[in-house]
């Protein structure tokens, strides 16, 4: 079979690239080694984690907040089997949706491991070992990433687990030890903390979610402790051992002090993900990875003509929507268009409750670059909307250029931050000043009023409601 475009990998990068290529008139195929499409995000990432986050939020609301709302129910109980089943149903409906989209766009799906024979020929090896060869003008590599193990403790998938197993547990852990207080650690840690597990997070750096603005990490730490999570920052894990019925984690404070020894029934290792290129046969086309990543230029081209790479397997944030933008970019570029991805404005979201969402520069980045800036903040507790829903934790922080007032970053921790950040992206994409946003009418009562107020604070320190 001869194609114009073959996409290897069907995650958000790959399937979106395939759809856009097909829309632009290319005869397109997608190769996926698993039986279901959608990659990490739909099968073992974004979607199942959000399904469990939602379930755990319903549980804690029923357990701790319904009574205050005047809703009396018997003490709720967790049915973990049903929670996991619902999550799997949600995954199924999403991955089936991608299969439908492939059909709708007349994209051929080849199931099996795709590997280069040469730059125009891909061998697809099915689970049964059957090999099919397909040829193409252009290839888009979108093979994604896998969890990074600790160098001294491999995932045994029983007690020392990655996010993939943490989405499939058959019981609520008694004590879940989380190594890495980044996005996965805090999202999945909070799921199990809400449904009854004791959760301890051990983080190497001095802040949770350390790539985000420091204020967010501090506030998230406060909220996580309120939820009952134990947090150890600045700790270097030295040993993790599955002793049969339990897992023992040892860590040392980086700046000296007493060593830590924790015993739990599960240890979630969430210290980042690494690009995945196993079995791809990159050597057949002369591509060498650098720190695991496929090197690409500013146009996502590899060093081999007509071979592109996108998503988690290349540099940049490992996010579904970043992969999607790159998928569209490459397809449109192949069609002779002049697309653009604004990497500064790829938002980052942590789906804890309250959520954390961020776009643009952090205060730490601005300090480091020496750019003169000003800040404005507004706490959720001063919002009528937040009081009505009792979601008073959190704040909005706006960073703006000191001279021009252009918004340089928006950082939100609070209810519905994930959805609100889109307004920040829009404002920054149109290069709004803090005063522009401060002068726009925001519906009352909404959480978005905190963004307006933070912009008022940044403009001339004149918030109204605080
Ligand atoms: P992937 O989604 O990893 O897809 C790659 C695909 O390629 C896989 O299906 C793989 O099987 C296939 N493949 C690999 N090699 C071959 C081969 N040789 N032949 C055939 N097929 C192959 N991001 C967000 O933006 N929001 C979130 O809320 C979010 N939540 C997450 C939660 C968790 C628990 C995890 C683990 C990740 C989360 N992410 C989230 C990150 C997100 O999942 C990734 O950034 C995204 O999936 C990357 O997309 P991709 O297309 O580059 O690769
Ligand atoms: P991460 O990079 O977000 O966090 C890893 C954390 O582990 C960091 O805080 C790091 O300092 C810490 N760490 C590293 N080595 C350590 C060690 N030896 N001991 C203790 N701590 C250590 O990575 P995570 O959480 O594994 O997620 C992987 C990727 O998946 C992220 O890059 C993220 O972009 C993506 N993801 C996105 C989500 C979202 O958008 N909501 C949700 C989940 C994952």
UniProtKB/TrEMBL annotation:
It comes from Ohtaekwangia koreensis. It comes from the Bacteria. The keyword Protease does not apply. Binds 1 FAD per subunit. Residues 346-454 form the Pyridine nucleotide-disulphide oxidoreductase dimerisation domain. GO terms for biological process: 2-oxoglutarate metabolic process. Belongs to the class-I pyridine nucleotide-disulfide oxidoreductase family. Its cofactor is FAD. The keyword Signal does not apply. FAD binds at residues 50, 114, 143-145, 312, 318-321. Keywords: Disulfide bond, FAD, Flavoprotein, NAD, Nucleotide-binding, Oxidoreductase, Redox-active center. Disulfide bonds join 41-46. GO terms for cellular component: cytoplasm. The active site is a redox-active disulfide bond. The active site is at residue 444. This is Dihydrolipoyl dehydrogenase. It is an enzyme of class 1 (oxidoreductase). Residues 3-327 form the FAD/NAD(P)-binding domain. One of its GO terms (molecular function) is flavin adenine dinucleotide binding.
């Amino acid at each position: 079979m001869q194609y114009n475009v073959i996409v290897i990998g069907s995650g958000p990068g790959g399937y979106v690239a395939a759809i856009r290529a097909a829309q632009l008139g290319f005869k397109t195929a997608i190769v996926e080694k698993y039986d279901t499409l959608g990659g990490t995000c739909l099968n073992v990432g974004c979607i199942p984690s959000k399904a469990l986050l939602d379930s755990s939020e319903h549980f804690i609301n029923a357990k701790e907040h319904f009574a205050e709302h005047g809703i009396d129910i018997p003490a709720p109980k967790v049915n973990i089997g049903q929670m996991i089943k619902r999550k799997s149903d949600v995954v199924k409906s999403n991955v089936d949706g991608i299969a439908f989209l492939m059909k709708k766009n007349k994209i051929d799906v080849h199931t099996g491991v795709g590997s280069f024979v040469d730059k125009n020929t891909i061998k697809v090896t099915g689970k049964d070992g059957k090999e099919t060869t397909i040829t193409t003008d252009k290839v888009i590599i979108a093979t994604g990433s896998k969890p990074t193990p600790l160098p001294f403790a491999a995932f045994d998938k029983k007690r020392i687990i990655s996010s993939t197993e943490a989405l499939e547990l058959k019981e609520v852990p008694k004590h879940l030890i989380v190594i890495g207080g980044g996005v996965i650690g805090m999202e999945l840690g909070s799921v199990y903390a809400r449904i009854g597990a004791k959760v301890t997070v051990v983080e190497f750096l001095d802040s949770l979610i350390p790539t985000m603005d420091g204020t967010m990490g501090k506030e998230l730490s406060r909220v996580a402790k309120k939820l009952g999570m134990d947090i150890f920052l600045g700790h270097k894990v030295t040993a993790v051992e599955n002793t049969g019925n339990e897992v023992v984690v040892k860590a040392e404070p980086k700046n000296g002090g007493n060593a830590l020894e924790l015993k739990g029934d599960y240890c979630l290792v969430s210290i980042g993900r690494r690009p995945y290129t196993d079995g791809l046969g990159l050597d057949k086309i002369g591509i060498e990875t650098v720190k695991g990543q496929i090197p690409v230029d500013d146009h996502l081209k590899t060093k081999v003509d007509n071979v592109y790479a996108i998503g988690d397997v290349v540099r940049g944030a490992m996010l579904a929507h970043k992969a999607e933008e790159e998928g569209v970019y490459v397809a449109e570029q192949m069609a002779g268009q002049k697309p653009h991805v604004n990497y500064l404005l790829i938002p980052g979201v942590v789906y804890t409750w309250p959520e954390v969402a961020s776009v643009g520069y952090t205060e730490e980045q601005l300090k480091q670059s020496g750019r003169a800036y000003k800040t404005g903040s507004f706490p959720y507790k001063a919002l009528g909307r937040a009081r009505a829903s009792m979601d008073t934790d959190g704040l909005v922080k706006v960073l703006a250029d000191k001279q021009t007032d252009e918004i340089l970053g928006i950082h939100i921790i609070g209810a519905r931050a994930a959805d609100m950040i889109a307004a920040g992206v829009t404002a920054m994409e149109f290069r709004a000043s803090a005063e522009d946003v401060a002068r726009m009418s925001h519906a009352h009562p909404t959480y978005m009023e905190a963004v307006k107020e933070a912009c008022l604070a940044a403009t001339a320190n004149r918030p109204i409601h605080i």
